[in-house]
């Protein structure tokens, strides 16, 4: 295992020290509870947005904390759910009187722990909490860590769009409805060329032959739909885009927001090349691209590969997408 | 070789198609000449900034084209200098009457070709051109592709800071003076855990044993100072920061802008962990951090590793650093 780390047990804690040092005016980090907060929060009257999950998917979620996106993110150990104590503390801290929205990727541990935290926050501190679960991965129905579909790329788009909605003062119910709509109208599919290595494990999560790729891989290296022979980018793009378009039932003339996401270990030049293939397929199908985002946004450590997320676009989502955001991972207009 | 590509010969051209598709309102790409332009340029009366170099270092340079940074970037083939024709065309296209600054990383091919292009642009089109060469890498004196030090991370900081200076209307001479000052007061040192693979070569550029790392590596995988046993992040940070601090002659009480740059294949969580170590060393040496940037900015395809760049900070450079910028790779305030 070749990594820029000290003790594998300290990776998450030390990376959070680095985040705090790198963004002193923008983030505040509770190092005991491993929670990343907006330095300027909580905002009175604004719905608080809390997410979190296992570490190893950076910049998700801590890198999406800031004006226009999340108010707090709870960092679990590598590929491991945070615990209810973290979520409870974050929920209480960001409540500005308008309630708190939990954004939860559909993995058994995350769902269970966020549920428990929501109940405790309501009972103990009287905070109104609504949870929205993302489950946008079309690859498999159930998976290693899930009942139902896994939550992946749509989570990034949702955090941005609902973050903007909260910023403009929408109610908790409106934010939750919007979040559910985004999850229902967005779908993803990923693939891997190589595995990643969790530091504490010290060896690759899965084995993949030199001439193979995994189509439909999960962001923890969970098995996908099939293992098949390595193929050119044009063919890989087809294998990712077609099931997403089919599952969403996208028709000619519709518009989408596209996320071409890197899994962490693929160079940016390859991600742009893949985006060319994806945009060509969409163009051929008569589907318009309202907005796009190309880069590493929800990763699996150093895994090589990518995923495609398509979200049905309407005027409201595009306007909220364009609204100012100021986080380490996504920033414009501020 | 496992890559998200089609034919290795088409990688640069197809990635540029992807860049154009991903940033339609912001970039304009000349696909014949492989030049990335600001969609809104040239600006009358503003000094034009042109850079470029071999591809494989993305987002450098094409990803730094836009308001507040470069006006044009010439993309060479992978790890290969662009040709004078590209540079000449870009120079002519961005001239808004105030002259053009060439920002050239110190590699033999780039220096030679930019020199030729500057002469031709002056002779043929009457464009006033000044060239500034970056040579900030303290690792080695001469190298595989250089006479003198290599140009690396300072190039990113220079393009941002001088980009802002050009935007506020400074003259060609002032921009060139500022660029030279930045190069003289900034230094870098990099390291690799793994090699990268150039698509056309199909195999790793160099071999590195499972328990080894290369200290002082170049951004094309050129040999550095030494190959030594893999070490913890804290020790790696020492090996990078100390030679840079020594070479700059930084004293207690001075301030720097820090770039903790990923080589492309190291996950963001490791880069933040490394930044923690770097900031701890600087803190211990009494050196203040005025601004910092952590992420993949000047890469070597999928190489795992990182580099540290320190730039002496003064009020002018920090103010220009903070000025609005709107490029795919670096964006704030717009």
What's the arrangement of secondary structure elements?
The structure is a homodimer of 334-residue chains.
Chain A: H1 11-22, E1 27-30, E2 35-38, E3 48-55, E4 72-78, H2 84-94, E5 100-105, H3 108-125, E6 129-134, H4 154-167, H5 172-184, E7 186-192, E8 212-215, E9 226-229, H6 233-248, E10 255-262, H7 268-284, E11 288-295, E12 305-312, H8 315-322, E13 325-326, E14 331-332
Parallel strand pairs in A: 3-4, 3-5, 5-6, 10-11
Antiparallel strand pairs in A: 1-2, 2-4, 7-8, 7-12, 8-9, 10-12, 13-14
Helix pairs in contact in A: 2-3, 4-5, 4-8, 6-7
Features:
334 residues, alpha/beta, Rossmann fold, Hypothetical Protein Tm841, Chain: A,domain 3, six-stranded mixed β-sheet, 8 helices, globular
| Helix share bin of chain A | 25-40%
> How is the CATH topology of the largest domain in chain A named?
Rossmann fold
Estimated radius of gyration of chain A: 19 Å
For the secondary structure, the number of strands of chain A is: 14
- Biggest sheet architecture of chain A: 6 strands, mixed
Taking pLDDT < 50 over at least 5 consecutive residues as the criterion, the unreliable ranges of chain A are: none
Structural class of chain A: alpha/beta
Largest interface: A-B, 63 and 63 residues
Mean of pLDDT of chain A: 97
Order of the strands making up the biggest sheet of chain A:
1-2-4-3-5-6
Order of helices and strands of chain A: HEEEEHEHEHHEEEHEHEEHEE
**What is the overall number of helices of chain A?**
8
CATH architecture descriptor of the largest domain in chain A: 3-Layer(aba) Sandwich
Q: CATH homologous superfamily of the largest domain in chain A - what is it?
A: Dihydroxyacetone kinase, domain 1
Strand content of chain A: 15-25%
